Every structure is written in structure tokens, then in C-alpha cells.
Amino acid sequence: EVQLVESGGGLVQPGGSLRLSCAASGFTFTSYAMTWVRQAPGKGLEWVSSISGGGETTYYADSVKGRFTISRDNSKKTLYLQMHSLRAEDTASFYCAKYMYSGTYHAFDMWGQGTVVTVSP
Amino acid sequence: DIQMTQSPSSLSASVGDRVTITCRASQSISSSLNWYRQRSGEAPELLTHAASSLQGGVPSRFSGSGSGTDFTLTISSLQPEDFATYYCQQSYSTPYTFGQGTRLAIK
Lengths: 121, 107
Description:
The complex is a heterodimer of chains A (121) and B (107).
Chain A: E1 3-7, E2 10-12, E3 18-25, E4 34-39, E5 45-51, E6 58-60, E7 68-73, E8 78-83, E9 92-102, E10 105-111, E11 115-119
Parallel strand pairs in A: 2-11
Antiparallel strand pairs in A: 1-3, 3-8, 4-5, 4-9, 5-6, 7-8, 9-10, 9-11
Chain B: E1 4-7, E2 10-13, E3 19-25, E4 33-38, E5 45-49, E6 53-54, E7 62-67, E8 70-75, E9 85-90, E10 102-106
Parallel strand pairs in B: 2-10
Antiparallel strand pairs in B: 1-3, 3-8, 4-5, 4-9, 5-6, 7-8, 9-10
């Protein structure tokens, strides 16, 4: 069974840092790109960042570029999101998700349960 | 960035009804369009990908269509578990933008 379990969320002051983790199981982790998507309280979904299966290629939303770093440890089957210079507007539930491929198309087919990040004094 | 606009933002319907949600992209995205359902307090789940391909395990009452800039998600006969929020998402180019969501409530 494919499973993604996020951890690392919590309360942090503005300007602070936090590292989120996403432990994967049930699939060949290195074969799939992974992504982080967030959802502010009562709001919609926002794509944050993606990383290729080998970790060589990364993509970021403009809203987090230069502050967040996505990475992965394929030996540990774990995805990370290092977050610095956190702002109140980063308060959200953060989901990790696995890519699936359909020919030239892709989607996010499996999601974790989410971890909550709250940025507040 | 590609903007995704869903309509309606909310709607009310009854169990057994047929409903259609539309999604429009600000530029052509070919068939790079996915639909997700998010039940209250839960993570999103993939319903359809590549505009019209039903994800494995998803009931056949869900169907997607469209290409280019205009897409639809149709639920042929609403079930109680379908009262949720639905999002479209383009996977054509980064940033992978989502629509604002359509909240489907019980009438």
C-alpha cells in the first residue's frame, strides 16, 4: 500500500525556520517525482515545489523561491521541505504528494494527510 | 502563470443529481488537466487526469472532458460522499496552478 506520512509542522515565529519531512512507503521512491502542495486555512490548494526522482531538478512557486528548499534522500525514502524566513502568509497545511505519469501527462495521485505550519508571534 | 478559473464557485444538489463543473485555463494547456476531490478535513484525491482519464479505483460516475482551454467534470449521479470541494489543476507548466475550488453542498 502506498503511504505518505508528513511530519515536522508546528508553531514558529515570523522569520523562523522549519523542516518538513514526508516518509514514503509502498512504491519505488526513486522512480517518481514528488511535490509539496499547501492549503491556507479555509482557502484553496497552492502548489509549492516539485523535485525529480533523482533529485537533480527542482521547481518552486515564486511565493517561496529563495526561502524554501525541496530535497529528497532516496536511501531513506524521504522527501523534505526546508523553510526559512517564514511569514504569516505561509501558515497552512502542507501536503506531500507523489507524481503519476500518463504518457506525456502527469498528476498527483497519492497524498499524505498533511502537516500544519503556523507562523505567529 | 496560467490562471485556472472554475465555475460555479459553489452549488447545491441532491443525491442522485447530475452535476457539471467547468474549468477554464487562461491559455491552451492541451489535455494537461487534472481533477481532485477534497472532503472536509481530508487530503485531496485524484479523480481524473489528462483531462479525461479516470484514475484507478475512482467510480465511473465521474468523467472528465475537454482540451485546450475549456474542461468539465461531470458526476452522473451524486452520492453522499461526493459532497465536497472540487479542484481542477493544470500540469502543463510550472507553476502548477489550481482552480479556486467548487464547493458542492447538499440541497
